[in-house]
Write a structure and sequence with these properties.
388 residues; alpha+beta; Thermophilic metalloprotease-like; 8-stranded antiparallel beta sheet
């Protein structure tokens, strides 16, 4: 999630072999994640989590952390067990806080997350009431998060590390998706950082923004009272900001909060995968920051129910994200979109704690908007999906 994008990764240097038709060099990737992205120090505790399909990469990370003097801890994600637990556990138990998770957030120095999706439809039939109860267990987490000081990195911005099953679910060719993914990981992060800082400098507190798209988006809003952050290869780039120092891989984005009372206009999202349900031509109307109406061609009731069962400031437009990575881009014939894609604008409603904001909610959803034009204080930053 970026609490929703809840974890991170990134690299400032090449992470893998240029032979993308084969599996990447996990040893090289691990060394750079541990020694460059996170800069693990002797004695630091490092929690490594991932799906059972990524055990080879997790093994390399475990050894590399140990060689750096860190103390590695492994956590295996079992999606089928997670689903069964949610479905078979009472809502009262699901909503109770995870005390161990809170302790980990306070005591663990670094988190590394390497997940992949083998069954994209696994949670499609889980009742929203169950998911809402589970989300409530994170309320204590949200209270502590702004003062947390761990470092984290996640491999895979949207959909995790590419798998054949995930590629099929988004209408993408697996080989093409996998190749683009690792090339985006292997991009020039030094140039990316320079580009990110230049764009971040134009996103000042209180600036006026106007966002339009070929799909029909036409909305204005005000930049919030936080500084822009750049995800370009090292967790230390946000080390002097509030909250944990987080990175996501493939890297390449500048993000900032939006004044949650400021959005006015219409947001049109051509495609949204929400809870494994396809929502097409989603149209959200905002008035003074919050959603005043919504409609879509199909499955709008899924989003409406999630909002109704959520708590906090759940329907305010709260963050803006600009993709910078020139090696990541929309794929023809596919619905695949991701935060780092060069020229792709992403906005979202709900929690923006991950971006350094103060909007607290147990809900959050991101909307990727290709072919958009963004102007800040009258200066165009992105034009028709291309960075100026």
């Amino acid at each position: 999630m970026k609490i929703l994008k809840l974890s991170p990764i990134i690299l400032l240097v090449c992470l893998c072999s240029p032979v993308f038709s084969q599996d990447p060099d996990y040893r090289s990737i691990s060394e750079k994640i541990v020694n460059t992205t996170l800069k693990v120090q002797p004695g630091e505790s490092v929690f490594i989590s991932g799906s059972s399909d990524e055990l080879d990469l997790m093994e390399e990370l475990y050894v590399t952390v140990s060689k750096a003097g860190g103390k590695p801890i492994l956590g295996i994600d079992i999606p089928t067990a997670q689903k069964r637990a949610v479905m078979e556990t009472s809502n009262d138990y699901l909503s109770s806080p995870n005390k161990f998770g809170l302790t980990m957030m306070k005591e663990v120095d670094c988190f590394i997350n390497v997940n992949s999706v083998e069954n994209p439809d696994l949670f499609k039939d889980v009742p929203e009431e169950k998911l809402a109860a589970f989300r409530q267990s994170f309320q204590a987490f949200n209270e502590v998060y702004p003062s947390a000081d761990f470092r984290s990195v996640s491999l895979g911005q949207v959909g995790g590390i590419p798998t054949q099953a995930y590629a099929k679910s988004i209408g993408a060719d697996y080989t093409q998706l996998k190749t683009m993914f690792w090339e985006a990981v292997d991009t020039d992060y030094k140039a990316l950082l320079a580009k990110g800082k230049k764009i971040a400098a134009s996103m000042k507190n209180g600036s006026s923004a106007h966002l339009k798209s070929t799909a029909g988006t036409d909305i204005t809003f005000t930049i919030g009272n936080t500084d822009a952050r750049t995800n370009c290869g090292r967790s230390e780039e946000t080390a002097d900001k509030s909250g944990p120092s987080e990175s996501w891989l493939p890297a390449g984005e500048v993000y900032i909060t939006i004044d949650p009372t400021s959005a006015n206009g219409t947001l049109v999202v051509p495609y949204l995968d929400f809870r494994d349900h396809d929502i097409s031509n989603l149209k959200l109307t905002f008035k003074n920051g919050t959603i005043s109406s919504m409609e879509a061609d199909e499955n709008i009731q899924v989003l409406e129910k999630a909002l109704n069962l959520s708590t906090g400031i759940k329907n305010a437009l709260s963050y803006l994200d600009i993709g910078l990575n020139p090696d990541s881009h929309p794929l023809e014939g596919s619905d695949y979109l991701s935060f780092e894609m060069g020229g792709v604008i992403t906005v979202g409603v709900g929690s923006n704690l991950w971006a350094g904001g103060g909007v607290v909610s147990d809900f959050g959803v991101s909307f990727h908007l290709p072919n958009s034009t963004l102007a800040i204080d009258g200066q165009e930053i992105v034009v028709n999906g291309s960075l100026k």
